[in-house]
Amino acid sequence: xxxxxxxxxxxxxxxxxxxxxxxxxxxxxxxxxxxxxxxxxxxxxxxxxxxxxxxxxxxxxxxxxxxxxxxxxxxxxxxxxxxxxxxxxxxxxxxxxxxxxxxxxxxxxxxx
Amino acid sequence: xxxxxxxxxxxxxxxxxxxxxxxxxxxxxxxxxxxxxxxxxxxxxxxxxxxxxxxxxxxxxxxxxxxxxxxxxxxxxxxxxxxxxxxxxxxxxxxxxxxxxxxxxxxxxxxxxx
Lengths: 112, 114
Description:
heterodimer; A: 112 residues; mainly beta; 7-stranded mixed sheet; 4-stranded antiparallel sheet; globular; B: 114 residues; 6-stranded mixed sheet; 54% strand
């Protein structure tokens, strides 16, 4: 079955540690996106990529980094510079870019 | 920059009653419009989309939405809700003039009461 896989579903980290969230898709989609979801704030765009080896900052990129070395993969690193990293993170993909996005099941990150 | 406003953060509604969820976006020449639904601790699922053509769009689970270009709105409606429609609903806009960036509204939580 085609889809988007985010792992892990739940992630706990100590404050000050970097952590990488995985997102893999086998839909052959060109574009991939990372969103952060906080209660009452909807989804806010962190980074997006329309093609391999290229990505753009979204609205809240500070404290995050990404790479797009393969079409299927778009990992997100939450760095120690992110002041409030505890949130629900959603990965999505679409093709062509800007069309309907398909979402993974999310990763809930808790920093203690 | 594109912005999307969902005017109601919560909408309580009785089972079998109609519901309307409002969505407005900032003006743009070329946009695609979407409504998604999210159940607790899950990803988002597409309900319907407007790309071009007829301004009345029908989606899954009996939902429909109307695109109004002059009012830059894309309101979602369902004539008769079920308990299973209890979820959070998100309006999203893809702005082709802004690098196909997909921007979401703040969400509307629908609570269907028996």
